[in-house]
Amino acid sequence: MGVEQAFDDFQKIVNADKDHVDLARERRDIFKKAFKAEPDAAEVFGSGSLARSTQLDPVHDVDLVIVYQPADHPDWGKPGESAGDALEYTRGRVKYLLGATDGTVERLVRYTRWRNHAVKCWVDPPEAADAFTVDAMPALRQSDGTLLIPQAATEEWITVDPEYLIRAVADHQRDWEHFRPMVRVLKRWRHLVPTKVKSLVMEVLALQCIPRGGSRPEALRAFFTAAAIEVNWGVEDPAGHCGPIQDDLDIAVLRNALSGASEAATRACALAADGDADEAQRVWQEVFGADFPAPAKKVSPAVTGPALITSRPVRDAPQG
Questions:
Q1: Residues 6+ apart with CB under 8 A from 50
Q2: How many CB atoms lie within 10 A of CB 247?
Q3: pLDDT digits (tens, 9 = 90+) for 68-121
Q4: How many CB atoms lie within 10 A of CB 181?
Q5: pLDDT above 60: residue 309
Q6: Which of 53, 58, 127, 305 lies most in the core, judged by the most C-beta atoms within 10 Å?
Q7: CB atoms within 10 A of CB 253
Q8: Burial class (CB in 10 A: 0-12, 13-18, 19+), 306
Q9: Cα separation of 145 and 130, whole Å?
């Protein structure tokens, strides 16, 4: 097995199960169908990692944006109670259209509760481990194409542009066919970092630091090297609206992890260039963990028994 084949096999482990992805899309599409028929809904589209095809297993939540007609909600978009009003209105429509007991379109949603920006809708029992949810976010389209969304915590509306990231990922993928798969690999790698790192942090760093060509090993080596520097300036919303993606990110810990991965990746690429694919795979295994396929390290057999007995020196002595 060569290094490229090892990456192929590792990708199969990293990628979300197709059945899980299909089910998540099916549930999201039920929401889309229900809300597209609403007379005050101008647009309905998916956002988040599923929309960008950068999701990991388990796929237990999807994001949906419902863009409403401003004329139907003239008070929305203004500071004050309208932020909570928009969320409560959306929650009511979810229950009416998709409530598990009496939904008019589909009986799907067991429980709803609005959070800061969106209504969280439980399809599975809320107490279940990894319960599947849909986050339905009300929004208003602005003249420049960005969105206004409610922020209940501060009773105001803020500007966001989730479509920017969708376009940026698709653009990078067009230039380099391995981009989305490598984003998934890096999202998995973050679990080896000894601090909390949001998956979106890795996705944005990938957009900034992964080259638009080359082999996967060389691209990852370049990523880890560049990201170890880039992270020092923080990781912010690439659309330029929402500031830092993770306020509590420990930059020093993440930087050290990226630097260590950079050194290992550089060593792995050098070994592969010298023709030592087995040892290169073992080094990549150090970077990505035991699930990365690599040959077992050869161990010299221990010498035991008679082989340990050494002969006595021969001496010229009289035999009497």
A1: 21, 24, 25, 28, 59, 62, 63
A2: 7
A3: 999 999 999 999 999 999 999 999 999 999 999 999 999 999 999 999 999 999
A4: 19
A5: no
A6: 53
A7: 14
A8: exposed
A9: 34
